[in-house]
Amino acid sequence: MAAGGLKMLQNMLEQLPASERKIAQFILENPQSILNSTVNDIGVQAKTSGAAVIRLCKSLGLNGFQDLKVRIAGDLVKPAEQGYRDIEPGESYFSIVQKTTSNSIQSIRDSAEMINYEELERAVQTLLSAQNVHFFGIGASNIIAKDAQQKFLRIQKNATAFTDTHLVATLIANAKEEDVVFAISHSGETAEVIKVISLAKERGVKTISLTKYGQSSVASLADIKLFTSYSGEAAFRSAATSSRLAQLYMMDIMFLSMATVQYEQTVQAIDQTREAIQFIKKEN
Fold this sequence. Notes:
The protein is an alpha/beta fold. The chain is about 60% helix and about 10% strand. The chain folds into 2 domains: about 5-75, Winged helix-like DNA-binding domain superfamily/Winged helix DNA-binding domain (Arc Repressor Mutant, subunit A, Orthogonal Bundle), CATH 1.10.10; about 115-275, Glucose-6-phosphate isomerase like protein, domain 1 (Rossmann fold, 3-Layer(aba) Sandwich), CATH 3.40.50.10490.
């Protein structure tokens, strides 16, 4: 069952216009009330309007009020979550293992709830038809870009993952109509990534973004927007731990979604790759 409506509202709360924020706050405080209410009912109860409810659903990237209701209904039947927990001074190894495991699982589950399946479908089809895919991220996001490049190369999909912005600009300047720029930035506000995706847009190159859920400069520029969950990163988790796992998880979903469409071709390519690596490893 779909879920994630309440997290979407929580994550977007501070970015929403005043009228939409009033509705979001009302729903967060009274989630049960939405289940048997109409758009106008919620507008009246939140002391705003039905039109603002529709705008809120659009701001959340949802397919209307019914989509929000279904997601919140899913939230209300889920088991209670433990939430994200940061480490403390002198934490035991056992406790660190438990907290890291819990945070990692929570991050992946939260990101699964944020998936817009129409956008996922668009991204998969765009990548399948791409001649070249140019992944771009800075710092921890470049680790994600490199991982994605390695996966794509294994299935005979041309891919790059450079950090040199001048080199990436050169690739974009010479990009073909079938090429794709895949921009990765957890914050969605990394200056270099904004410039690269802006250049791609100016040149008419297709773009996909992977950012934390919500409004950001990178996501606003992308043709196709993919998200991971965002949950107020604490001091140690901000070192791209849970968020990095969620990004890798999303890339795995992209890769496996592409693989299932061209299953035989993917299996053959991976077998050939494995054989080539075994040949290199083989002792003379």
